[in-house]
Write a structure and sequence with these properties.
elongated; two-stranded antiparallel sheet; binds S-adenosylmethionine; 37% helix; alpha/beta; 275 residues
């Protein structure tokens, strides 16, 4: 493979390929990082892996060795010749040249048999959150996601109540997954070198999801609660049954002067289930 800056540049220029900032193209050029991602992912020959953005195929190549199949989505068709070269012996890899955000992923996966479904990817930074949200909203039902993201975005994904990064997205993700950081990544392992460091975050599907009487109401409640982060629930939730909400908050030694950022997911679930 092409795990050195010189070899990667040679490969790309041989095919007349220019890296595009607009697609968040920062390609990994360090084999150790790829091995580390593979190790923490724990994929095996029962696993179907979805990779969003194979780029030049550095991660894809190793994913294909350890998994049953790899289905990749790549928005940039000008990578075709590059990927033909780097993945030429890899028969268990399918590359779908499409914007992942517009893809019908469940249809694309129908022809595959697998026991576990993972997403493993170095995500394009400009659409990281929409990609994660799509995976959940489309009910793709992944068992695990191991994704490289910009550090500040990853901090929001895994934030706990009370921390500055905790927001509606953290609560939304924490409903479905246990989220933790598994690797720190220096900006020196990419070409071109990005401005910020990255982390690899692991999302593991929660085994027993807490029951929600009305999912839409729950997610609306969370969005509204965090609408103005510095405001209290009394201010953010004006149209709701505030007496009922306060009754629940009091059980946890809070009242309506609390801010959403202090409340854990179980309190939100209890409020939503009682509205
Ligand atoms: N996996 C490669 C690596 O680690 O070297 C490339 C990672 S690069 C950060 C992100 C990749 O996602 C690029 O190949 C880019 O073209 C692709 N991409 C960007 N937006 C996309 C989208 N909406 N759907 C699918 N692929 C996308």
């Amino acid at each position: 493979m092409y795990y050195s800056p010189i070899k990667m540049k040679e490969l790309l220029s041989k095919h007349g390929f220019n890296l595009k900032k607009m697609f968040g193209q920062n390609f990994i050029i360090d084999e150790n990082i790829i091995n580390n991602i593979i190790n923490v992912s724990n994929i095996d020959k029962d696993t179907l892996v979805i990779e969003i953005g194979p780029g030049a195929g550095s991660l894809t190549y190793k994913l294909s060795e350890y998994s049953k199949n790899v289905v990749c989505y790549e928005i940039d068709e000008t990578l075709k010749e590059v990927l033909k070269e780097t993945l030429k012996e890899k028969e268990n890899v399918e590359i779908i040249y499409k914007d992942f955000l517009k893809a019908s992923v469940l249809d694309d996966l129908k022809k595959y048999e697998y026991k576990k479904l993972y997403v493993v990817a170095n995500l394009p930074y400009y659409v990281t959150t929409p990609i994660i949200v799509k995976i959940i909203e489309d009910n793709i039902n992944v068992d695990k996601m191991v994704v490289m993201v910009q550090k500040e975005v990853g901090d929001r994904f895994k934030a706990s109540p009370g921390s500055k990064d905790y927001g509606s997205l953290s609560v939304f993700l924490n409903y479905y997954f246990d989220v933790k950081k598994v690797l720190d990544i220096s900006k020196n392992v990419f070409i071109p070198k990005p401005n910020v460091d990255s982390i690899v975050v692991e999302f593991s599907k929660k085994q027993n999801l807490k029951e929600l009487k009305n999912k839409e109401l729950f997610f609306k409640l969370i969005r509204d609660s965090f609408k103005q982060k510095r405001k209290t629930l009394r201010n953010n939730l004006k149209g709701y049954n505030l007496d009922k909400i306060e009754e629940i908050l009091l059980k946890y030694n809070y009242d309506l002067s609390v801010r959403a950022e202090q409340l854990n997911i179980d309190i939100f679930i209890e409020i939503a289930n009682n509205l």
